[in-house]
Amino acid sequence: MTDASHDPADAAAPSRAGRPSRRSVIGWGGAGLVLGAGAAGGTAVTLMGGSEPAGEAGAAVPFHGEHQAGIATAVPDRLHFAAFDVTTRDRAALVQLLKDWTAAAARMTQGHAVGDGAFGGLPEAPPDDTGEALGLKPSRLTLTVGFGPSLFAAGRFGLERRRPGALVELPKFPGDNLDAARSGGDLCIQACADDPQVAVHAIRNLARIGFGKVAVRWSQLGFGKTSSTTPDAQTPRNLFGFKDGTSNISGTDRPTLERHVWVPPADGPDWMTKGSYLVARRIRMHIETWDRTSLQEQEDVIGRDKGEGAPAAKAREHDAPFLKAMLPTAHVRLSHPDSNAGARMLRRGYSFTDGTDGLGRLDAGLFFLAYQRDVRDAFIPVQRNLARNDALNEYIQHVGSAVFAVPPGVLDQDDWWGRGLFSS
Ligand SMILES: C=CC1=C(C)c2cc3[nH]c(cc4nc(cc5[nH]c(cc1n2)c(C)c5CCC(=O)O)C(CCC(=O)O)=C4C)c(C)c3C=C
Ligand SMILES: [Fe+2]
After folding, report:
1. pLDDT at 365 over 70
2. Which of 171, 195, 294, 332 gives 303 a disulfide partner, CB atoms 3.0 to 4.6 angstroms apart?
3. What distance in angstroms lies between residue 405's CA and the mean position of ligand 2's atoms?
4. Helix 196-209 to helix 91-109 angle, to the nearest 10 degrees?
5. Distant-in-sequence, close-in-space partners of 123: CB < 8 Å, separation ≥ 6
6. Would you say 405 and 169 are in contact if contact means Cβ atoms under 8 Å apart?
7. Better pLDDT: 17 or 181
8. What is the C-alpha separation between 414 and 102, in angstroms, rounded?
9. Which parts of the sequence belong to the Dyp-type peroxidase C-terminal domain (predicted)?
């Protein structure tokens, strides 16, 4: 696989083989040629002379930075998440893969094709890029990598002493019905984008680069974000029809991010500073049962009203909740920081529907994603509380689970995903 790390991701220049980049193809087609926005740039400059903030649909989100994109950055509406097993036993091969992945991710997030592109190369060889994203905008694609506990197992890659104390296996919670085939993973990549084809293209091409070194263990498509990191925008709704994400951590709330999401130097290990920990849970939602439940019961279960999203006994969505006005089993009361010693996490989940279950019911639910500074202080105590007491448990079941250490951002073109972990 071509390592494009020495090829500045400059959309203004033709690619090495003299072919247009994915983004310049867009422009030459006449729809808003995007120039500039090098791999480390902040905004994408359009031919119209304007500049498109990275938060707007279609734009490129900077890949390089102190934190990985895809955590506090705005949440686009589509997800393709993949967990991988590492099949190679060769540490050097794994390191090379992470370098190749980083180079490809830097290009794809800025709207470029992988390596030498999808066409025009050697006719005898498969192209570097699979091609289905040609002509599509960067679509706010973010690619976020994580390392699972199994990567650190003794006898694998010599990482056992580098495993963070916070990277614990999640305990079994009451009611869990986890499918091993939808759980765990040595590595994960979260691809978020406005366009599902852009997200799927990214995971497909990264899996392809990894052929012979990694194998996809499980993957999850998501649509309709169920949480937002931009509280000024309209709060999205989950498949139960309720606004979801009202009380989420805002991506611009730096003090709260520092306190609850980013790993500070004091927590250690050094290679995780400015990183975060990700919990992924596939949660089946029994929507047919929910749909036969009265509105009053639904609102009591959540602790907020369905229309406005206001907390019980309050009028507006963003009014401060009065927890005692909710039933002791209400989801919001039980998950609120005041019921969990101040625990908070940044939620970034997506709805999913994966056909039917053979009994005529939709296999649908929430692919819950939450980033936090330490799962032992956030997801684990909150989920313990919910698993024991939440009225929502009558309507949901956790069927997949994984936890990952998400390292800090890739600083520049010489940096790569996992450099801190693999360098002594
Ligand atoms: C362990 C963490 C959580 C799981 C698992 C979870 C599942 C889950 N949640 C909803 C729907 C809603 N959740 C809401 C709020 C909310 N949920 C959690 C945590 C988990 N949810 C937290 C920390 C909060 C915020 C509490 C607060 O500070 O007020 C809401 C209300 C709107 C909002 O603030 O987001 C809804 C609705 C479902 C359907 C679900 C599993 C399928
Ligand atoms: Fe919730």
Report:
1. yes
2. 332
3. 22
4. 150
5. none
6. no
7. 181
8. 10
9. 235-410
Distance between Cα 246 and ligand 2 center (Å): 10
Say how far apart CA 42 and CA 65 lie, in whole Å: 10
Q: Please state, in angstroms and rounded to a whole number, the distance separating the CA atoms of residues 168 and 149.
A: 7
| Nearest ligand (C-alpha, residue 238) | 1
pLDDT, residue 55, reads: 53
Q: φ, ψ for residue 242 (rounded to 5)?
A: -100, 145
Are 275 and 375 a contacting pair, CB within 8 Å? no
pLDDT at 27 > cutoff 90: no
Confirm if 248 and 227 have CB atoms less than 8 A apart: yes
User: Which residues fall within 8 angstroms of residue 112, CB to CB, at 6 or more apart?
Assistant: 9, 11, 15, 21, 22, 23
pLDDT single digits (tens) 385-398: 999 999 999 999 99
Tokens 């696989």 -> residue: 1
What whole-number distance in Å separates Cα of residue 241 and Cα of residue 300? 14
Model pTM score: 0.89
Each domain of the chain, given as residue ranges in start order, spans 76-102+140-283+404-422
DSSP 264-293: PGGGS-GGGTT-EEEEEEEEEE-HHHHHTS
Whether the per-residue pLDDT at 29 is higher than 60: the answer is no
**pLDDT confidence of residue 231:** 74
ipTM: 0.99
CA dist 89 and 100 (Å) reads 17
Name 373's Cβ contacts closer than 8 Å, sequence gap at least 6: 166, 259, 260, 261, 262, 263, 264, 267, 276, 277
Which residue's CA lies nearest to atom 2 of ligand 1?
383
Residues 46, 52: contact at Cβ < 8 Å? yes
Tokens of 149: 């506990």
Q: How far is the CA of 363 from the centre of ligand 1 (A)?
A: 20
Distances (CA, A) of 315 to 240, 248, 306: 21, 19, 12
Using DSSP bridges, classify how beta strands 51-52 and 34-35 pair: parallel, antiparallel or unpaired: unpaired
**249 pocket-lining for ligand 1 (C-beta < 6 Å):** no
